[in-house]
Amino acid sequence: MKKGLFGLVLVAVFAIGLAGIGLTQGSDKSAKGSAMSIEGTYVLQKRVMADSTVITGADVGGMMTFTKSHRHLNVFWKNPDGSISSRSLVSEYKLTGNGYDETSLFLVDQNLMGEKLKTSMTKESGTGEVTVKGKEIRINMPLFGEPIITVTPDGLTANMVGQWIDYWEKVK
């Protein structure tokens, strides 16, 4: 009898713990009171250029993970001249109904913004505007000229206005 009661208590504690996920650290409540979360792992599926050209496969790829408090991004693409550009970023963030605060911890850019290779461990911080509409969370990413992202339950888009839109699938 004691074993059964212990198991029941353990399940109840576990369920209470799960109910609290999404309401701590990297997420907060919006003005409407619903929990906001962008946690998950996303894989880049395609890039659609401003002229409607679709780029997939070996010409573009990436993975981005948001934990409760950190973001990790690895992305690459083939340029029209055949060269490869890439970005690797590790940062800390906090998402609230008022904004997305981010501080970079490590950055490596290859063939971006006129530089062959840029590495930085200098902490840079910024705040981006957040808009919540239904189940969509739109964030103006605050650092390094990154695109506007819109997160949904199934994935996210990254919109570099006037240039391209990346489509990322949520895999975890």
Quick recap:
The chain starts with a helix and ends with a strand.
Written account of the structure:
The structure is a single chain. The chain is mainly beta. The chain has one domain. Helices cover 10% and strands 53% of the residues. The chain has 1 helix and 13 strands; from the N terminus they run αβββββββββββββ. It has one helix at 2-19, and strands at 40-49, 54-55, 60-66, 70-78, 84-96, 99-112, 115-120, 125-128, 130-133, 136-140, 148-152, 155-160, 164-170. Strands 1, 2, 3, 4, 5, 6, 7, 8, 9, 10, 11, 12 and 13 form a 13-stranded antiparallel beta sheet that branches. Strand 5 (84-96) and strand 6 form a beta hairpin. It is globular. It starts with a helix and ends with a strand.
Number of continuous helical runs: 1
Net shape: globular
What Rg is obtained from the alpha carbons, in whole angstroms?
19 Å
Tell me the number of strands.
13
User: Could you tell me the mean pLDDT?
Assistant: 81
Protein structure class: mainly beta
Descriptors:
about 170 residues, mainly beta, 13-stranded antiparallel β-sheet, 13 strands
Strand-helix topology:
Blueprint: H1 2-19, E1 40-49, E2 54-55, E3 60-66, E4 70-78, E5 84-96, E6 99-112, E7 115-120, E8 125-128, E9 130-133, E10 136-140, E11 148-152, E12 155-160, E13 164-170
Antiparallel strand pairs: 1-2, 1-3, 1-13, 3-4, 4-5, 5-6, 6-7, 6-8, 9-10, 10-11, 11-12, 12-13
